[in-house]
Amino acid sequence: MDNQASPGQGSPQMNPKGAKSRSDKQVTKRAVSIQKRIFIVFAVLVALLLVLALTASKPSTYVLRAKANVPALTALTNDQIELVSIDSSAVEDGSLSSNDKAKLVEIFMSTVINKKNKFELFKNQQLHESFFASVIGDDEQLISIPAKSGDAVVGKIIAGDKVDIWAGLSSGGAINLVATNIEVYAVSLSQEQLDSVSNALVSNPSGKVTTLLPNAPMPGSYVLKVKTVDLPKYLAISNATSSGGRVFLTLRSQEALDTPSINPIDAHLVLCGARTDAICARK
Description:
By secondary structure, the protein is α+β, with helices and mostly antiparallel strands. It folds into two domains: about 60-135, Alpha-Beta Complex (Type Iii Antifreeze Protein Isoform Hplc 12); about 140-280, no CATH class. Helices cover about 30% and strands about 20% of the residues. The chain contains six helices and ten strands, in the order H-E-E-E-H-E-E-E-E-E-H-H-E-H-E-H. The strands form three sheets. The protein has a five-stranded antiparallel β-sheet, with helices on one face. Strand 7 (about 160-170) and strand 8 form a beta hairpin. The protein is elongated, with a radius of gyration of 40 Å.
């Protein structure tokens, strides 16, 4: 007999080129399954981190805010102010704020109570100590003087500013410095505007002042905090405006030195000085 083994007998057959055995396929499936598990676990961790980042509480601070619009020169009460917690990044520089709620209540009692706001406060506006005026001193009084907007920095002067006050006897006449470094306590409408509102209310008693006032009125009256001994001169210059006199307010820096006094001066003296020739002769 022929002992030569026939094909397919006696020795194992080699797999065709490129074919994988059953064991290789199982290894591959397990590897893919592990990779999927790793990916899923990684995705879950990323999702958890994202949720934590989005829900993490931000640092907060307590602040004092106006509950609604508050007119200038109002003695504020608890009903007009709210104490709320806001994101620390939204706290304004200089606002009345604290991380301690009880501490902020103390600040409120010492800073706001028994004082008046210098200018109008708006709803949700954060409060600053500089917004409030101290109680008027025993030697001080408030007085309002008229000044046309064009003679008062085109209406740019607001409560809290410091001004110098000048007055002229008549149009083109002598002018002099009345007072320097005076605090503007509040600003208001001109007398003509106030009269217009008053007349409208008389003819229509059911009307509301807020609907009669212009949206952005130019101020024409300025409330000043002055020494009682100086009242006569302010009253005098206010009275002079009814006979052609003029009042000028000039805005100054809060840190500026007092403006030095001058002798009365007029346009002729400014232009001619000591000249006495024909062109400068007074007529």
